[in-house]
Amino acid sequence: MFDEYMGWIETDPNKYLNVAYDDTYNETVVTAPPIGATRTWDGSENRSWTNVSNWATYTVPGVSNPVVVDGGDTPNWPQIISSVSNIESLTIGTVADANSYLGIELGGKIAVHNTTLGAAADSKGTLWMAGGYYVTGILQLGVDATSYGQVNLYDGVLQATTIQREAVDTGLINITQGRLVLTGDQLNKVSGWEANGNLVAYGGFGELVYDYDDRLAGMTVVSAISMDFNKDDAVDVEDLALFVSRWLAQP
Ligand SMILES: [Ca+2]
Predict the structure, then answer these.
(1) How far is the CA of 200 from the centre of ligand 1 (A)?
(2) What tens digit of pLDDT does each residue of 164-184 get?
């Protein structure tokens, strides 16, 4: 499965840039595409990302559009279950004292310049991955001391150029069966986040496994192993006994 995922990994940082040759000055000109209008999720119909009725301006966001998923009155949180148009940026959580979510399911796929989870004071934004592929530039968790960003990486692949948090208590990435892929050697950052509790495996009942340039060339890959072998929500000597008994039973 991991190899299947790898086939989808986007490694071209110039993907979103327009590259043109200027005949007048004999030079190559690189520009970012224009940024369009912000599209705001309202979820008035259902959870479908591609249903125009779920967007405040009755328009599904495209590659030039920043997208906002707000807390507050939204009756349905968005869910991406297929390959949808890439978007300019994604901000989840702009309303104080509200939790906001985006779910990526098996088969879902989207790429975005940059992502912010928890983008206002006292807001919380959660990216909930049960499968699929989410590709972003910077993944920002929290923007001030009271905002909070969370990623539940239950399956699928989340690729970011890097991860950032406003402070040690403004964000959490919880990995179970998913993979976090970062550009270049970010082992120091990953171990620092692990030490501060910002990166955990199986909600704390597991171990993070990470490498650079091993499972994927030029990338840092983070995954998780559960240590709760008997699945009773505790990691203790019973799990060790179960592990040893199975290990000794191997032919
Ligand atoms: Ca256990």
Answers:
(1) 17
(2) 999 989 999 999 999 999 999
The owner of tokens 């990166």 is: 199
Eight-state DSSP code of residue 35: P
Residue owning tokens 């890959």: 221
| 158 in Cβ contact with 178 (< 8 Å) | yes
Distance 192 CA to ligand 1 centre (A): 27
Cα 244 to ligand 1 centroid, rounded to whole Å: 13
Burial label, 226 (beta-carbon count in 10 A; 0-12, 13-18, 19+):
middle
**203 alpha carbon – ligand 1 mean position (Å):** 13
Model confidence pTM above 0.70? yes
Q: Ligand 1 mean position to 207 CA, how many Å?
A: 14
Q: How far apart, in whole angstroms, are the C-alpha atoms of residue 224 and residue 54?
A: 35
Query: According to the model, what pLDDT value does residue 15 have?
Result: 53
